[in-house]
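fwd from M.: "can u put these together and see what the complex looks like"

so here's what she sent:
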Amino acid sequence: MMHEAGTATEQTRARLLDAAREVFSQHGFQGATVREICRRAEANVAAVNYHFGSKDGLLAEALNFAPLKAMQLANIEAGGAPEMRLCLFIRDFMLMLLDETNGSLPCRIMARELADPTPALDKIVREAIAPLHEFLGELLREIAGEKTGEAELRRCMHSILGQCLYYRHSHPVLQRLHPRLRYDQKEIAAIALHIADFSLAGINAISKPTAK
Amino acid sequence: MMHEAGTATEQTRARLLDAAREVFSQHGFQGATVREICRRAEANVAAVNYHFGSKDGLLAEALNFAPLKAMQLANIEAGGAPEMRLCLFIRDFMLMLLDETNGSLPCRIMARELADPTPALDKIVREAIAPLHEFLGELLREIAGEKTGEAELRRCMHSILGQCLYYRHSHPVLQRLHPRLRYDQKEIAAIALHIADFSLAGINAISKPTAK
DNA sequence: TTTACATTCAAACAAACGTTTGATACGCTT
DNA sequence: AAGCGTATCAAACGTTTGTTTGAATGTAAA
């Protein structure tokens, strides 16, 4: 009756999810309208409620934490010095946040939801952000050493995440200030490298305070 | 006929502006409703359109760049080493972004608008953000020295602003992760000090690259 | 073919939105 | 007191929102 891969039903579901990810990442949950999502998916307005129950349900299914988790796993398996792994993490994270050719729109949706709580935020925090913080906390612990306090380490983590997210959150502003700027992969890599250098120096200063 | 300070008309205008600043800073421009603003201001729904023409007009008048400019001016007049002035700037900026007792809600409204363009964003960028970037750019130039490239210096500026704005943008998330956390003035000062230390070390690493 | 069920569709729904209207109340000058 | 312009108000306006409905369509088993 249904449920074979590639069946018409599943195609509509998939088109709706793709369109939803685009519109949600562009306009946020509040700014996105069911009608625009359906228009892009070439589906009827009722399709969202039929397949996902509600706009909330569509958001919940549109989210996908797999790329973020896969990135963390690959980072751990990459091995090497923790400083190098931090460098790698920042670059991969920035690519997910900024690279248009990167398919991981869910990460950009999550970035939008940070400031604007929706019914899905609790799930996002529980399943994506909390593990990310744990992963990054352990990585920074390796770099900063055991003597660094928990609060200082957490603030270093916030400093790094803040730098990364800034380029996503402030993108409309930065585009107005520097209209020529384009976020191609080369520019993203350069920014990531800056953040890594900047942050490693910061961590060192925090973890090994030198008397003046 | 009217326009004397303290007249009933001006009181309604003032109440509307106060309420608008609260609601806009809490829910953003899209999320805020004219009806809630009027309810808090104890005014009729039509009052917004009568006094400000539209919801857009209310936002435009609710914005106030004076505190941000005053802060920059005070910073310049304070004098002292540029490193110390950066420290001062970060603390004042964080207080405007986070301190509940601080009356400068416009700064928090602007922080929300960064990610979500509204008709007022162009004016915000032109009159508040661009001057802020110029001010901070000059301050960082003093710290980093003449040899540092323009792009590197701008990235350092983004690193600092990103760290500061993170605590505002990610507040809903951080509150869920650390429910006990409260942003009193002591905590804000501690965070500001961290960002300053972290960033000064970062700037030094960028501006005076040391061969390994 | 007939039956049963899942999916799609145009249309309508109720609620909330920003805004407008026309009447009423107020404050001032004459 | 009369007249005039401003401010306030309840009510309604026209849109847009997410959602629901009931009929039409497609698909696969009986």
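replying to her w this: The two ends of chain B are 75 Å apart (CA to CA).
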